Amino acid sequence: xxxxxxxxxxxxxxxxxxxxxxxxxxxxxxxxxxxxxxxxxxxxxxxxxxxxxxxxxxxxxxxxxxxxxxxxxxxxxxxxxxxxxxxxxxxxxxxxxxxxxxxxxxxxxxxxxxxxxxxxxxxxxxxxxxxxxxxxxxxxxxxxxxxxxxxxxxxxxxxxxxxxxxxxxxxxxxxxxxxxxxxxxxxxxxxxxxxxxxxxxxxxxxxxxxxxxxxxxxxxxxxxxxxxxxxxxxxxxxxxxxxxxxxxxxxxxxxxxxxxxxxxxxxxxxxxxxxxxxxxxxxxxxxxxxxxxxxxxxxxxxxxxxxxxxxxxxxxxxxxxxxxxxxxxxxxxxxxxxxxxxxxxxxxxxxxxxxxxxxxxxxxxxxxxxxxxxxxxxxxxxxxxxxxxxxxxxxxxxxxxxxxxxxxxxxxxxxxxxxxxxxxxxxxxxxxxxxxxxxxxxxxxxxxxxxxxxxxxxxxxxxxxxxxxxxxxxxxxxxxxxxxxxxxxxxxxxxxxxxxxxxxxxxxxxxxxxxxxxxxx
Length: 521
What we know:
- The chain is an alpha/beta fold.
- About 25% of the residues lie in helices and about 20% in strands.
- Among the domains are: about 150-220, Alpha-Beta Plaits; about 225-510, CATH 3.40.50.200.
- It has eleven helices and 22 strands.
């Protein structure tokens, strides 16, 4: 092999190439040094290493994901920086020799959640095993692995107004069948059926990459809240009509000032027996949110009676007007509704001008229902819900645990807490809910127990308050109910009774002018 040796003729060329190479390397070093210096300056201006905020957490330069820092550190949430006043001065970052390398482009113009999370910020996300992979924008609500309270072969898909025409193609690509749709101000909420044995979670994962999907989630299941088995129904009301709840809530005194005259209360429940003597003329309009025609059910009829009975019994607001929403179908021991039927019912009730919405049912956390609850609360609607009958060790149930909802628990004739009631800091107030005499289908009566009926009584008391002061908002009703309640259990608000037993008389008297309009002056 011939060795290469420089000659007099090629030495100038070699020197020229060496100078060019050295110049290029020097330019690259200066450029990299400028980039690193700028990054360190930016990091130093925040008093810590570089952070990428995502849904209240952070992604640090060390590659570890952490929650919000506390105990004297700055936190970032939604782009705002706050200081709790306890941060210690930090030393300037130690200089390290920059490593010159090839820059890597990781993505441009794509809105992505934190690495490895599809559902960041929803509380029910799942992990993606491909660490570092760019994920689709946050468009799906995948249920936690242990969540089974949803229809196993259905899901809900929301499309914007601009993408509503794309539903047909979406169905074909993912082998789905359309069951029903709901108009959302030009957009579409579609109830879809999975036409094979795929799971809801699998289909939702596949929908995550669909640009036409604004949101997708399971069709969650909800149940009414009453103790089983049901006692009764009885053929007629007992002669003495034992309604201890009237005295406990001080309703006779409150009725001298208001009876809920013409206040619209929406009852989202099972089908109501509107022909019952206790409810004759009280239901001004009905809406069936189901795909089937249901016969009058004992739960819905009892809830309506707790609010507006006016014959042998007396409801909390005997002159209120009811909007009957049938969103729950009858089951052997209860009534069952879904996200889609309840969403339809809430939308209809709000369109009809409901001032109060009674929700005597429970289920899991549900983005579709949560969104409607938030919108109704913001518009001033009073939202009342039963806390549930799953017992003191149960996790919180919804919609009672949503912000803006007045969560109601149940007590008995001796002011003791109903043993089956859920507990939690979200509980606002208590009302009688054990062995309550109420209306039943076909003109009969029944004894009922559960947080459902306590919630209905509070909805009635809210109607009395709105008659006295129509401009009152849901937050205003909550404040008056909690500040006028009679304390039970530990002193002050507690996870068992909330602020205490509702006092309808004090609540009405707290609203000016306190002048009797329906009784002796």
